[in-house]
Each structure stands twice: as C-alpha cells, then as structure tokens.
Amino acid sequence: MSFERKIVFDAVRRLRGDKPFTDGEVRELNAAIDRALTPEQPRPAARRIGPKGLALIKRFEGLRLNAYKCPADVATIGYGSTGQHVRMGMTITEAEAEKLLLDDLDRFERGVVNLAGTTTAGQFSACVSLSFNVGLGAFATSTLLKKHLAGDYQGAADQFLRWNRAGNKALAGLTARREAERALYLGK
Predict the structure, then answer these.
(1) Which residues does 161 contact at the CB level (< 8 Å), separation at least 6?
(2) Which residue out of 4, 25, 61, 98 is catalytically annotated?
(3) Which residues pair with 102 in a beta bridge?
(4) Quick one: which of 88, 115, 136, 152 could link to 147 by a disulfide (CB 3.0–4.6 Å)?
C-alpha cells in the first residue's frame, strides 16, 4: 500500500492557517497516521515478537519509571513508551512499564504482519524492533522492507546498519542496536 503522508500534513497545516509544526506535533501526527494504517485485525499467536526480540528492545530502550523527555524532546516513560498517555511528572511501576511495552508492541507487530508478508521468527522480531524504534511509516517505505519482500534477505539484513543516525550523526547506541537487529534477522 502506497501512502503519501505529505498530503495529510499539508491538509492539517492549511487547517491551522499554515502555522508550522513543532517536532512534537510532527511525531504525534506520524504516530496517528501509523495507527490508522494498522487497523485492528486478528493475528495468529505466532506473530508475536520472540523472546530475543523483546530482550533486545528492553536492553536498548532501557527502563525509566519516571517520565522524561527523550533526545527528540518527547515525553517518554517505561521502555520507550510515548503518546498522549505520557505526562511529565508521571511515575509508573515496573509491571505498568511491562504492560505499556506489550500494548505498544501490539501495534508494531500488526504493522509488520501487514507489511512484511512471510517472515521467519527472527526476521519478524528484528523488523518489529526496528519499526518500534523508527516508526511504521519509515519501515513501510524503507529499502530494507523492499529487499525483504523481493526475497533479498542478505540485502535486507545489510539495510539495518543504515538506520544508525540521528541528526545526520552516527550514534554508537543505534549502531549497536542495528547490529543486534541484523543478527536477529539473519537467525544468529
């Protein structure tokens, strides 16, 4: 499915009197579009992220029980949970953080099911981890997904390493995460 986000952004911008979006508004609008593109549907139990993928996300997202602003200035809590449910000053328990993560992952699991077609367990978990971090919209238009769908699994695996930048700068943490996702995708 091809989808042009610019059309939605342009329409909302016009409704706002051409007022520019803040970074936070862009993230919220992208998240709303991602939710709209992944409708509720039944999914077989096998299409859940595996234990290795879940551990990878937890390791790289880290656990924070008090709401904080991430480097992109978005209110975040738990294992990287963002959205309208997160308010600065908020505190949660570890059990609540676990529930938020599983609730958040449900949307990304459905998205990967809809977008990636047939996958191995490792490929699925790696793609869920990547999309959890970069968003379903970015994953949907990625060369990684195109190569995966074409059956070029080595080429798709190598694309993980291209997603290691923030603000045009390669980050060690993102590089390590992408190497772990790549290995998981390849079944290592």
Answers:
(1) 175, 178, 179, 182
(2) 61
(3) none
(4) 152
